[in-house]
């Protein structure tokens, strides 16, 4: 259990809705198991995830915004016949990494980049790979580390 009120924002891409549902189920279970709170927003493409997180972070520093302790990025990019797959996968990862390092944001990375739907399901299923749960746990661990190293209680 977390000793402080931790609030996360889960940003999920709905490109592959069944896989997205399973990733979210794993993330929700992991977050709830630690006693943290969370909100969920949905975007249509994985490429939108870094932008949505950046906007949410900026909003959290304004009077009307919600302040989040960390973010969980969930999505699935399946290889196709064109170079588009690599652009989406690489630029999504780069955007999230840039946010994490540049703004010191705890971000759990749960964006799958796979060759086919079978690989996606093997990684997304809570009973198998549980990448959604893993991303949420990584985010919570990074929040704890950040608080420890910066001497913060919140």
From TrEMBL:
Enzyme class: transferase
UniProt cross-references to Pfam families, sorted A to Z: DMRL_synthase
EC assignment: 2.5.1.78
Chemical reaction(s) catalysed: (2S)-2-hydroxy-3-oxobutyl phosphate + 5-amino-6-(D-ribitylamino)uracil = 6,7-dimethyl-8-(1-D-ribityl)lumazine + phosphate + 2 H2O + H(+)
GO biological process: riboflavin biosynthetic process
Family the entry assigns: Belongs to the DMRL synthase family.
Protein purpose: Catalyzes the formation of 6,7-dimethyl-8-ribityllumazine by condensation of 5-amino-6-(D-ribitylamino)uracil with 3,4-dihydroxy-2-butanone 4-phosphate. This is the penultimate step in the biosynthesis of riboflavin.
Record-given protein name: 6,7-dimethyl-8-ribityllumazine synthase
Encoding gene per record: ribH
């Amino acid at each position: 259990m977390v000793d402080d009120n931790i609030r996360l924002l889960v940003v999920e891409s709905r490109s592959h809705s069944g896989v997205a549902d399973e990733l979210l189920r794993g993330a929700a279970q992991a977050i709830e198991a630690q006693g943290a709170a969370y909100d969920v927003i949905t975007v249509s493409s994985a490429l939108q995830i870094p932008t949505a997180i950046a906007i949410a972070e900026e909003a959290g520093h304004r009077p009307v915004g919600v302040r989040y302790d960390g973010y969980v990025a969930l999505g699935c990019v399946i290889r196709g016949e064109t170079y588009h797959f690599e652009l989406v996968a690489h630029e999504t990862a780069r955007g999230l990494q840039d946010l994490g390092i540049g703004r010191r944001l705890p971000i759990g990375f749960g964006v799958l980049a796979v060759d086919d739907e079978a690989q996606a399901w093997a990684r997304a299923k809570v009973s198998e790979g549980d990448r959604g749960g893993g991303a949420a746990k990584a985010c919570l661990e990074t929040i704890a580390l950040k608080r420890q190293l910066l001497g913060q209680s919140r």
